[in-house]
Amino acid sequence: IKRGILFLGLQSFCYSHSDEDINKTMDAFEEALSTLKNALIEGNIRKYLEGKPVQPVFRKP
Fold first, then answer.
1. What is the pLDDT of residues 26-45, one digit of tens each?
2. Is the CB of residue 25 less than 8 Å from the CB of residue 12?
3. N or C: lower Cβ tally within 10 Å for the chain?
4. Whole-prediction pTM value?
5. For residues 4 and 24, is the Cβ–Cβ distance under 8 A?
6. Using CA of residue 46, residue 50, residue 13, residue 34, what is the dihedral sign?
């Protein structure tokens, strides 16, 4: 969201997307994945998080 893209695990492009839309999305993915790569290399993902980590919503009784 910070980069203007809402990503829910799947990104589909269609003819209604302009070249600018697609390039903006690809740039955001590249930046986000580069950050993730650095976090994994450092072994410190929490350092790169903004906000609290996601917690389970549903719990088994």
1. 999 999 999 999 999 999 99
2. no
3. C
4. 0.70
5. yes
6. negative
